[in-house]
């Protein structure tokens, strides 16, 4: 039934002479190779051995000063006893000891260990990230 409707009726515009043009259009395919050589704007023959690179080779620009000062910069404030007279570092290390007391079994999901683990490491990574931004921003004269 669908074939009889498609062949019996014509769709306006597709077969009409008003849309047909005398100008020949050239269709191209991704499967056929073009006769014209396309120039790649990203290809740089002399730079990086012919490879295009978006970033510098040493994009991380790691510096052990940032790691050292960042660790000290996080250990100092996290060791201040502000959580019921205990520090975040102390609570974290205390929870490690409590979980190691029953070593073969893992910590329960309701254990305070997970809260202290995530909080302590999140703070450390934030301090290290801002330390990297500040230290490298200062040495490269961003501010």
From TrEMBL:
Keyword Membrane listed: yes
InterPro entries: PSI_PsaO
Coiled-coil spans in chain: none
Sequence intervals crossing the membrane: 113-135
Keywords: Membrane, Transmembrane, Transmembrane helix
Protein's name according to its UniProt entry: Photosystem I subunit O
